[in-house]
Write a structure and sequence with these properties.
21 helices, Dihydroxy-acid dehydratase, 6-stranded mixed sheet, about 10% strand, about 575 residues, Rossmann fold, iron, alpha/beta, 4 domains, binds FE2/S2 (inorganic) cluster, metal-binding
Length: about 575
Amino acid sequence: MTKKTPDTLRSARWFAPDDLRSFGHRSRMMQLGYAEEDFRGRPIIGVLNTWSELNTCHSHFRERVQDVKRGVAQAGGFAVEMPSLSVDESFTKPTSMLYRNLLAMETEEMIRSHPLDGVVLMGGCDKTTPGLVMGAISAGVPMIYLPAGPMLRGNYAGKILGSGSDAWKYWDERRAGNITDEEWLGVQGGIARSAGTCMTMGTASTMTAIADAMGLTLPGASSIPAVDSGHMRMSADCGRRITEMVWEDLTPDQIITDAACRNAAVVAMATGCSTNAVVHLIAMARRAGVNLTLDDLDALGRSTPLIANVRPSGKDYLMEDFYYAGGLRALMKQIEDRLDTSCLTVTGKTMGENLEGAQVFNDDVIRPLSNPVYKEGSLAVLRGNLCPDGAVIKPAACDPKYYQHEGPALVFDSYPEMKAAVDDEDLEITPDTVMVLRNAGPQGGPGFPEWGMLPIPKALIKQGHRDMLRISDARMSGTSYGACVLHVAPESFVGGPLALLRTGDIVRLDLDARRLDMLVPEEEIAARRAAWKAPEPRFGRGYGVMFSRHVSQADQGCDFDFLQSDYGRPTGEPDIF
Ligand code: FES
């Protein structure tokens, strides 16, 4: 259904008027070698590309841009590639999370300030999906998300290796002296074999699945391996489809509804999602004016079985296997009756229509509901006197013996302090000890780093232990595993109760009751609170100051207060220039 005409395209504001400003715009396009018929009266599509030579997950994006452009041209549009902040997970210090909101701001402002009628968002490495989507939601023009796709399975000495998960596993074995340097180097060379995102169900695959389930990608696009020829075809399809979406005026507000956000949460739970999904999903939903809460996610988690047998929550398989087993469409087909299939998607069709014909080809990878990997969803939300505003744990990825646990706290105020202790072979610690790291949240980290999978102390590793209860106000990588309580809110750096915990205090986790408490008398907690002093701010200048002043806590999605949809003036562009 066509709603837009050449005269009503957004880009016509730049190119159509017979005035001096538009003369300048047209002449500058001609400077680039284009004739007026190339760009006037056609949908102008911005291809927002998060490629960089230090973003290994997006190293194929330079070629994929050409596929997108081909698709746009075939559909009668005009594509322009625009570089976007390339927030990569591997190299960014102190943490990529510090820059998710910067990417969101850049995305919104680049779209708003340029003559674009629609955008293709090219991302995939963890923070790029929420960053691009959050910005594009606020910009409000038609958009389609092009996921980078997972890399191929890792391989070394006949063993399949999974991103992140096997790195941690082999690192522990190396620390215990169980593998040689040669084996360690073999793992290093074999664990990342191609372009694409981490190929476990880590944050990247979780977030692209969420975008897919929200209706923002072509159906099932998130599962296609980065180097599969199908990925090139999907890229060209994105180009064709976004051009049609512009004529249809199919804007994100028609797609990202309350029901679409709930669909995304249900699908995330069924995939065994990364704990990071909680933070990003809440932030994305809020940009769209949807008030998704931690309690909503816990309720959806309790009622959704985990059916993707993909590491780290699943035992055996990786994203490449998931694709061959039918991919996300097949998984969604399995849980179709738990989804609102009437939701509109970028195809212009409903979610239900997109799922027609989807099939599972390997029911050990994508399990039937009668044989789930884990009977509940993969995440649980805790509350208690240690985390009044919530904390998150991934029960499916930890030893069930920690579901009910009581033990003495061993508290660290900084990552270096904790790191020195875990390498001390004489550290006094027992398997019941609860290791705690604080000052690692959004403001304290700074930037909410992925430190939450605290390393198991050498002293315990040598005794054969590979898991223990750990608590922090940090996040953890989606490829991590273990009994790790994360995202404790409010964080200790701003005076959350974790700041008041002391080594030796008894901590109790009761997963069934969704409680996390320190067994310390109320009056003692009050006395400690009265004596607590706020630490110095982490930043004295620059972007970090803005981050610290405006970032919200984990339970609110860590967006900046002034970027949320309910801040001050309504979303939209001031049409005054
Ligand atoms: Fe990019 Fe894992 S490092 S997705």
